[in-house]
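Morning. Coffee machine broken again, so started the prediction first thing and wrote up yesterday's gels while waiting. Chain of 265 residues, entered below exactly as on the submission form.
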Amino acid sequence: MPLRLNPTLRDRIAEADRPLFGGWVTSGSPVMAEIMAGSGLDWVLIDMEHAPNGLESVLAQLHAVSAYPVAPVVRVPSADPVIIKQVLDLGAQSILVPMVQDAAEARAVAEAVQYPPAGRRGVGSALARSARWNRVEGYLAEADRHVAAFVQVETAEAVDAAHEIAATRGIDGVFVGPADLAASMGLIGQQTHPDVVAAVRRAFDGIARAGAPAGVNAFDPDAARAYADAGARFVLVGADVALVARGSEQLARTFIPSADADPRS
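Came back before lunch.
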């Protein structure tokens, strides 16, 4: 029986003639993951950093999205090589590692993703979904072709190091996080502040000079389009929980007069 793997985000970016737009899955729900995967978006981010996700729920979400021509990415909670190994063994083909500050941390991520001699990923392909229990021919020898590593730049210091981070061998792209970046600049909650936007674009410039694709999170449509025009190759433009929150609030305002007040106030 022929085996089909989802594309890596690296491959989708390389093949695309436009920016790729994705959706964030933070509910921990495989149903929501499947809804997002079948929406027509280019990629989905299954989040372990800010979501109630463990290995079992991530596996269920990978199962749910596997039937769709979407590139799933799993954001691990940290650069812990044990967590990275476990998530890769689940069959995640693209991972995103948050809060990478410099080239040394980026190298550690790249090593955690690759088998020896290039890296230090533990070998367990016969036991793992990643190689479909050794049904993917040549998986160990060609593992670099099957997995992609992306890292996040999320502080002012990391923006200054963006070129070196992006130039690190084994790193396939860099994702800029405006929320934490704004916080690091003393502008918490002000992701669209001109100084934050300027820092994001400065990171883009450094990443582009390294020949790597840059990504960014931007739920505001105007900001997302502006970042795409500025060179972002992959952009997160919405999250499952945010879509449900805003949609359910709109229902309440439509049918319940007392719901006109902002429930977040």
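The CA atoms of residues 74 and 95 lie 5 Å apart. Going to sketch it on the whiteboard this afternoon.
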